[in-house]
Design goal:
Oligomer: single chain
Largest sheet: none
Number of domains: 1
Number of strands: 0
Strand content: under 5%
Order of helices and strands: HHHHHHHHH
Helix content: over 70%
Shape: rod-shaped
Distance between the termini: 34 Å
């Protein structure tokens, strides 16, 4: 329990550090990379047009998206960071080798009453499924020859142990997925806010008396389109990664359920 508590604290600390750090990095990128004077005609990031040469033209064009740009960069950075974090975490949770092969090997061992070998296989697999099965097998060994308990009580005891082990594993699998789903939602909304603000600038430029301000008009359109693009990119990546990790978690969860059923069934069939 102490290890789980420490793990939870570390994860919370990671989130608390990463989010503001990503915002600071995004602001620095916006100011000193995208807003570099060399990216604009006349060296003026505010009134100057982006230079024609690449990559200054692209950087300058993105900078024209306005203050929403660093926020959208932050969202995209968070999607990338937490996608990597989830990938590493779920890779560890999956353990070594294929889960289906591991479960098949353990079932074969249990069929031959080779409980110790099955526990050794769990130690070697090192995944969440193996952790749950190992807890069940340890309890299985404890209650197997306990004459004070009838078979139904033994089975319930093993099931309870498996449920407790599962309750410790599952939160670790889904942790921080809510950040990806939140990024998927707010990225599109932030892009829409930037689009609306950019279009307001464009229409304001058109509404001026006499000849419309071409610079203000182009700036407003650029801001609208850049923010839309960033919002869609961030949302698309976040949705893809969220669905990918959800599928991986479902696979591991199914393996945990199978592991629990295998141990309980072995005890039920034991004579």
């Amino acid at each position: 329990m102490s290890n789980e508590s420490n793990s939870g604290k570390m994860s919370s600390m990671f989130v608390a550090i990463v989010i503001p750090l990503a915002l600071v990095v995004s602001i620095l990128i916006y100011m000193f990379v995208l807003g570099d004077s060399g990216n604009f005609e006349g060296g003026d990031p505010i009134k100057g047009h982006p230079v024609e040469a690449e990559p200054g033209h692209t950087f300058g064009l993105i900078h024209k998206g306005g203050f929403i740009v660093p926020i959208l960069i932050t969202v995209n950075l968070l999607v990338i960071i937490f996608s990597i974090e989830r990938f590493l975490t779920l890779s560890r949770a999956k353990g070594k080798g294929r889960i289906e092969s591991f479960l098949g090997d353990v079932r074969h061992m249990l069929a031959g009453d080779q409980v110790d070998q099955a526990i050794t296989a769990c130690d070697e697999q090192q995944g969440s499924v193996a952790n749950v099965m190992r807890s069940g097998l340890e309890k299985y060994k404890t209650v197997l020859h306990d004459s004070s308990m009838d078979k139904e009580t033994k089975i319930n005891s093993v099931k309870q142990e498996i449920e407790e082990a599962t309750a410790l594993e599952l939160p670790m699998l889904s942790k921080n997925l809510v950040i990806l789903s939140t990024c998927a939602s707010i990225s599109t909304l932030l892009g829409l806010i930037g689009t609306v603000m950019g279009m307001i600038k464009s229409f304001s430029a058109l509404a001026t008396a006499g000849t419309p301000d071409a610079t203000a008009l182009s700036t407003g359109i650029s801001e609208a389109l850049i923010n839309t693009a960033f919002g869609i990119i961030g949302s698309t990546i976040a949705i893809i990664m969220f669905n990918y990790f959800s599928t991986k978690i479902d696979s591991i969860t199914h393996g945990i359920d199978e592991a629990g059923f295998s141990v309980s069934q072995t005890l039920a069939n034991h004579k």
